[in-house]
Amino acid sequence: MRGGQADLPLHYGHVPKWLAQRMSLLGGAIAEAIVVEYGRDMFLRKLSDPCWFQSLGCVLGMDWHSSGITTSVMGALKASINKRAQELGIYICGGRGKHSLKTPDELLRIASATGLDGTKLVQHSKLAAKVDNTAIQDGFQLYLHSFVLSIDGSWAIVQQGMNTETRLARRYHWHAPQVHSFIEEPHTFIYGDNQGQILNLTDRNAALTREAILAITKERPNYILQEARKIIMPSHHDVRKEDVNLKRLGTVLALAEEQAVQTMEELLLLEGLGPRTLQSLTLISEIIHGTASRFEDPARFSFAHGGKDGHPFPVPTKIYDESIAILQQALEKAKIGFKARSEAIKNLSKVALQKEKDFIPNHQLDQLVAKEKAVSWQYDGRTVYGREQKPKQTKIQLSLF
């Protein structure tokens, strides 16, 4: 897979501090788990998959379909990963707005410390931005550019543009090993809503046009791109049954409700966890260990920790904190040779996959959402509007007649 693109409704607002701190902790732990288990390049490869990226944002408690996922996820990862960059061998540069302009200086500073070719890295950063902003003129102007670099010299780029007229944002994903040319179709093709004719100088059929431009300017133009995967988010804010693979979600819920995972010896280490935390951990396990085909319905992952605007339900901060603690403890123990707990978390996704083969979902999505909202106060559920309150008991007045 070369990379991809995602179209999302343009949302404004901010991430509350209580959620931003948790996103950074859990996002950093997930990134570390992937690097430890599969290596740095696997983490970069996952970042270049728009469906996986959207699923990660859902697990971290962001609105499942909005443009805000890009800024908040990359901000959370940068805050967490850069603190331990030397240990993980991963660095994140750039960001939104004025932070994107600092990318070249950040790359040169990292290159100086690691021995990488800083000039070449800066060139790749600028080329990717020029391609998505200029060579492909599709109405989306870039406002976010994040360059994720490994000490091995490989990189991934996540950048996003906005179209204020259509109120859409478009996210572009790059992965260094798959980019063989910055000029002609480094992605396979471009997906998105048809908005009429666009200027695409990276199209193979535009070769003569490029030659003419070269003849006039005497300069090599830098262009791109078409992509391997697409994800176009709908405009509705609530999570609907058509947004979720109910068989996959139902499997996770069944495991949590039945706690059938405790039939496996390794998963006895997770004994004592409540079913609600087990539900979140199973989805986190899939984010870390799942293959690309598992992320085609990102909305499913919002059933781990809800969303800050209350869709599909308020963020259960108690469950969120338990998820962070369990994953961090597993990582710390693995560093000193005790990998049983991290293996147990890994096996959650395996058990779910096995159970899914013959599973027939019997849940109604609206009932699941209503149940989560009803008990949200028990888990200290929170949204940008505040904490969920315990429902007041309604007194029944007996009739005298």
Q: Can you walk through the features of this model?
A:
The chain has helices at residues 17-38, 40-47, 50-59, 68-81, 85-88, 103-114, 118-135, 207-217, 246-258, 275-289, 302-305, 317-335, 340-356, 365-374, and strands at 3-9, 90-96, 136-137, 141-150, 155-163, 168-175, 199-200, 229-232, 315-316, 381-383, 386-387. The chain is globular and about 65 Å long. Helices cover 44% and strands 14% of the residues. The longest helix is centred in the N-terminal third of the chain and has 22 residues, at 17-38. Mean pLDDT is 79; it is low at 186-194, 212-228, 260-268 and 396-401. The termini are far apart. With 401 residues, the protein is an alpha+beta fold. The strands form three sheets. Strands 2-4-5-6-1-8 form a six-stranded mixed β-sheet, sandwiched between helices. It has a three-stranded antiparallel β-sheet with strand order 9-10-11. Strand 5 and strand 6 form a beta hairpin.
For this entry, give a set of tags.
disordered C terminus, DUF763 domain-containing protein, DUF763, 401 residues, 6-stranded mixed β-sheet, alpha+beta, single chain, 14 helices, globular
As a percent range, the share of helical residues equals: 40-55%
Give me the oligomer status: single chain
Large-scale geometry: globular
Strand content: 5-15%
Number of strands: 11
N-to-C span: 73 Å
Supply the helix-strand structural class. alpha+beta
Topology pattern, helix = H, strand = E: EHHHHHEHHEEEEEHEHHHEHHHEE
What is the gyration radius calculated from CA atoms?
22 Å
Q: Treating each run of at least 4 consecutive H or I residues as one helix, how many helices?
A: 14
Uncertain spans, ≥5 residues at pLDDT below 50?
186-194, 212-228, 260-268, 396-401
The average pLDDT value, as a whole number, equals 79
Major beta sheet, strand line-up: 2-4-5-6-1-8
How is the biggest beta sheet arranged? 6 strands, mixed
Pfam families: DUF763
Protein name: DUF763 domain-containing protein
